[in-house]
Amino acid sequence: MIHIDASEGEGGGQVLRTALALSMVTGQPVLLENIRARRPKPGLMRQHLTCVGAAQAVSGAQVDGATPGGQTLRFTPGPVRGGDYHCSVGTAGSVMLVLQTVWPALLLADAPARLTLQGGTHNPMAPSFHFVEQAYAPLVRRLGAAATLQLRRCGFYPGGGGEVHAELHPAGPEGLQPFDLTARGPLIGRHAECLVPGVRRSVAERELGVLRDQLGWAHDHRAIPVTRQNEGPGNALLATLHHAHVTEVFCSIGEKSRSAETVGEDVVRQVQHYLGSNAALGPHLADQWALPLGLAVWRSGRAARYTCTEVSLHASTNFQTIERFLPVQFEARPLPDGQAMQVEVRSTGDNAA
Whole-prediction pTM value? Predict the structure, then answer.
């Protein structure tokens, strides 16, 4: 059994999610202690318990300690199975984090999986549906595993109520194939959109106006898509950059305490930070890409590289957690221009193909 002190490094919920994913992938039991110990509300919250429940469902795992506020969890997985699954957070907690917990294991399942996920789809401190569907999923497909994601209904804090359908296929006959992603390639297109169900349209106009004034991005009526009243109230501003080799999506969530201008300026800062570098991936995609790429390196025995604007503490903690389960090593170093980092993932043992 692998023992992990979940308070080390960044110390958040990602240690739990990565450990659950790789426990299922490798069949190794894991004991997590001090889960979210340094957070204002330590231990397992509803969202984390949904991740545990989803992992238990797809792997038939034996679980001890899955209680609200619990800081110790023992997880012993069985074989990962495809099939139909329904997961409800029960609050506005992020369903996208639940999806990313089980997706790596389902890349190696015996059959496709169809998931219905209910909860929050656009949350602070979590990837939005648009980010996962447009930035993360295309890279997973390039590894050799088909996936289709559909947003049935948006869900925002505090009401939740969002719904996402996902059809995830295991890797094809050739298995997961790692690839280098060191350049983003030419810009193909860019667009902004603002989700404002149950919120005045003027809020969207003001947020999009900040992008127009500070980035020079024009927008039309499609930038404020039609939403239903039961999808809100809520607000998310999204800016998408389509490059030849990668798509990046930047998001900021509106709340009562934040002005429309603050939301817009937040997205502007994210876009400018990305455009100020030649790196392929922004900080969040660099973090989340590590796990599926590490799986592909392990299964194939071939190294792979990617460049990113920065390696956050969140990402470096994720690297360390992955190395606890897989015979791979992450090495991050700055590029000569000083404007980006390169992350190399290489195998340190026998591949599992």
Answer: 0.95
